[in-house]
Structures are given as structure tokens and as C-alpha cells.
Amino acid sequence: MDTSTKVLLLSSVYHGGLAITRSLGRLGVAVYVADADPWAPSLFSKYCRGRFIWDLNRAPAEDSLAFLTTIGRTLGRHTILIPTADTTALFVAANADALQEWFLFPQVPLDLTQSLCSKKKMYFLARSVGVATPNTFFPASRQDVLAFAEDARFPIMLKAIENRRAKNPAARKKVIVRGKQQLLDHYEIMEDPQHPNLMLQEYIPGGEDANWMFDGYFGENSECLFGLTGQKIRQYRPSVGITSLGVCQPNATVVETTKAFMKAIRYRGILDIGYRYDVRDGLFKVFDVNPRIGCTFRLFVSDNGMDVARALYLDLTGQPVVAGHDLPGRKWMAEDIDLASSYYYWRNGKLTVTEWLRSFRGLQESSFFAPDDLHPMLSICLCDFRHLFRRLRKKERTTPMTGAFQSKLTKIKTDS
After folding, report:
1. pTM of the predicted model, to two decimals?
2. CATH 2.40.110.10 is held by the domain 208-366
3. What does the pLDDT look like over 189-200, one tens digit per residue?
4. Has domain 135-202 been given CATH number 3.30.1490?
């Protein structure tokens, strides 16, 4: 295998960037990381050959292009560029002509990238090619929400159409609402009336085993060169979050549906897509399409070690992609968020200690701990501790004062 071509990660989203760095670095590939966060776990990996601190989301596009051109000159022509977030995938698609002088990446039209990153556009795109999706409504105002709630069948999923356009952190969350008033309350918190960005989606009943994922890589003619499926065992937060513990399981229907979908829209590159099985009509319904690498991609590893990052590398460097075979039962987890999600499942009566211990049978890999690369684990422990400390401080500042202390404080203010 020729590993002489270098790789630059354009942002390093949480454990996903670390997984790319390790996966390619263990093959001997020189991996570099450009990210706004100097504490990103991938920057502390022994497989990271160099770091570039840059905030692509806040910097003007022309400054980012100049910065990346400088990196391109430093690393040499034809460095492979791997975006790891919607914002960076959109940036690459929008500036493909300028970037391709120095970098290699799958050429995906900007309008297609925008359609897949927008849940609204993706919804209509999927329906136009015959792919099943949950019934969804896109309100333009509070009045639309009121009219919808009159005949709605609860529970309903409320979520952002595009996370990058969310007005606040709360608006980037998915919320299951169980009644009209709860829907209106969350809508008021999450929506920006001047720039509507919320959608109302039917909630498909079932447990976590109804959630299916496909991770794959599609070549120049939209042929699937590598692709595996799996299920969520736990997610953070429960029912609405990202995978914290997953298992590889074959699903021919999901594979064939995804292949036909990507062929119809002529997609090339890494794909991370989510489905939910609807027992009411026996259909697997697509609800999330990411035209980029997903942070869970190391769940999907074949018997010869292939994953989507390696498939991308081989294809873009003109080497054959040998997909290998799936490994049913292979499990992967993200340690810190799985600990948090396990607590929520236990608190809600959906997980016992015995079930929790059994759930780790078949665990082959975790996000941060690796015997050959320990520094990222120490880094994420420090980051999690800092995050927890900030949350506790914030909670302490916002907790209302009650009882005798509040009365005493009121008296002091009155006297003064």
C-alpha cells in the first residue's frame, strides 16, 4: 500500500477526528489537523504529524482559503482533504475550484451538498427518488404550529433543519414533545421567527434497535466501494442523540436502499446515513443524511480492517479498495458519552446494571482509549472535567435562591 500521500483533516469533530487520525496513521499515512480547538483530542495523538489552529466557522471564506493555500504549499500538492462537519463539507463544495489546486477530495456539487445537509431539502430529495421518510411538516410561523397541533398525533419530533443556522444551543437539539403546550414551549425557545429553521416530524415508535446506520464510500460513478450497516444500542441523549454504543449487523434492505438512493442522485464520497424501522408499515425510513465522514465510522470495520477513511484514501490515490466482509456483533463505543447515556437509561428504568454489563460483550474498540496512543485519553478526561466544572458553575449561578436565605437577602436589600 502506498501511503506517501498526506492527509489534512478540516476540523476534528470530537472523537471522529481522532478516529481518522489513528486509522490512517496506523497505516503510515502522515495526518495533519486544522481545528479551532487547541484541545481537540486528535491533536494529542502520536499519529498527528502537525496541527494548524484555525476557526473556519468564524473566519471570512477568503481568509480561510488563503490559510489553506499556505498549508497546501507547506504539505505539498495533492494532500487529501477530509471535512468532518456539515460546515466544512459545505465550505469544500463551495470552494472546490480554488482548493483542488492543492488538495484531493471527492467532487460533490454544492447544490447536492446543500440538499443533503438540509433536512428539509433532503426530505423532498428522498421522496423524489422513492426513498421512504417520516412524515414531516415545516412551519413558517407560530400560527402554522398552532394549526398543526390541532390535529397532530403526539409524540412529535421537533428539531432544526440545519444545525449551523440554529439561533442557540437549545435549538440544535432534537426534542420529543408529547402535547400541544410542550410543543409551543419548545418552539418559542428554539425558533427564530425571522429565519424559520424548525421541522415537525412524526415520531416512529420503537426502541433503540429500530435505529439503523449505514456508513459507506461511493466512487466516481456512484458505485458503493465499501459499505456496512449497524444498529444503535445506546445514544446520547436517549432516543434523540448520537451513538454512544453501537453494534455491526447486516441489513440488506438498508444497503440496497442506500445504494439506489446515492446512484439516483449521483453522489460520490463518504456517506453517513441514518434510518429508523417503522413496524407499522415495515419500511426503513431515512431521517438523516451526512455527506461527510461520521464520528461513529470506526464501528463499521470489515474483517480486513477497511473503513470509510481508508476506502477514501485508497480510491483518491488510485489504489484498489478491497472491501472485505462485515463482522456481525462487532461493537464500538464512545466512553464518556456512553457513561452519561447509561445513567439516563438507568434513571428512566430502561437499563439495569446486569444489562449494562452484558451490553459490552463483543466490544472491539472505543473512541479514546488505545494502548498504543494514550495521550488523547488523558486529554479528553481533562476536557470533560473542565466542561463539567463549567456546567456546575453555571448551574450554581442560575439556581434560584429560596427559603430563609432568600428572605434574609431581601431584608438586607430593603434595609440598605
Report:
1. 0.90
2. no
3. 999 888 899 999
4. yes
